């Protein structure tokens, strides 16, 4: 399983790129798994459904399975830390490629998404783990390769070139190496 992150500031187009990379990689005969970090609470369950009633009644883990899909929802205790990226990667079923959206401060290899209109600086100079930048503008001072954000096939090539094997990465992914806050933009101050 080759693992690579798709990272960038909010609004850069990470999810859009991931949803384009999945069929591009699948079209090459590869199986693709994805992971998405949510900074805020989220829910995959629907109120009133049996699985939600199990959770509401206090079920710490609820597994829902059918002939087509399996979902596991685990409630963390109030004093329980968020699982490490390594622990979460270890739980994934086998796939050829794992696209990890988010987890900027972790040590896995990444492709940074940069969109000029977003108003935030590119991450390639901030994160040592960035192997390439997918950008909508040229970045002449970039210290890593820059790929046109619209060239999904070239970005898919970079995913395969720069992704690293999960089992090699797991020891380094037990804790983040740094935390990042989005820099203020001029219009944030107005």
From TrEMBL:
PANTHER family found in the cross-reference section: MOLYBDOPTERIN-GUANINE DINUCLEOTIDE BIOSYNTHESIS ADAPTER PROTEIN (PTHR40072:SF1), MOLYBDOPTERIN-GUANINE DINUCLEOTIDE BIOSYNTHESIS ADAPTER PROTEIN-RELATED (PTHR40072)
GO molecular function: GTP binding
SUPFAM superfamilies linked to this entry: P-loop containing nucleoside triphosphate hydrolases
Domain of life: Bacteria
Domain Molybdopterin-guanine dinucleotide biosynthesis protein B (MobB), chain residue ranges per copy: 3-136
Name listed for the protein in its UniProt record: Molybdopterin-guanine dinucleotide biosynthesis protein MobB
Gene this chain is encoded by: mobB
InterPro entries in UniProt: MGD_biosynthesis_adapter, MobB_dom, P-loop_NTPase
Swiss-Prot/TrEMBL GO biological process terms: Mo-molybdopterin cofactor biosynthetic process
């Amino acid at each position: 399983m080759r693992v690579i992150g798709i990272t960038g500031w909010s609004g850069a187009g990470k999810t859009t790129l991931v949803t384009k990379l999945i069929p591009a990689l699948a079209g090459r005969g590869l199986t693709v798994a994805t992971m998405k970090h949510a900074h805020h609470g989220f829910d995959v369950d629907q109120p009133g459904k049996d699985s939600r009633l199990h959770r509401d009644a206090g079920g710490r883990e609820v597994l829902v399975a059918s002939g087509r899909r399996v979902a596991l929802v685990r409630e963390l205790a109030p004093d329980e830390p968020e699982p490490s990226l390594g622990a979460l990667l270890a739980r994934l079923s086998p796939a050829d490629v794992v696209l990890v959206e988010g987890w900027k401060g972790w040590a896995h290899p990444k492709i940074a998404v940069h969109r000029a209109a977003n108003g935030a600086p590119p991450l390639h100079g901030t994160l040592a783990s960035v192997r390439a930048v997918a950008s909508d503008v040229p970045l002449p001072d970039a210290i890593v390769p820059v790929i046109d954000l619209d060239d999904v096939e070239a970005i898919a090539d970079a995913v395969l070139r720069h992704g690293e094997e999960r089992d090699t990465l797991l020891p380094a992914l037990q804790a983040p190496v740094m935390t990042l806050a989005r820099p203020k933009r001029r219009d944030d101050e107005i």
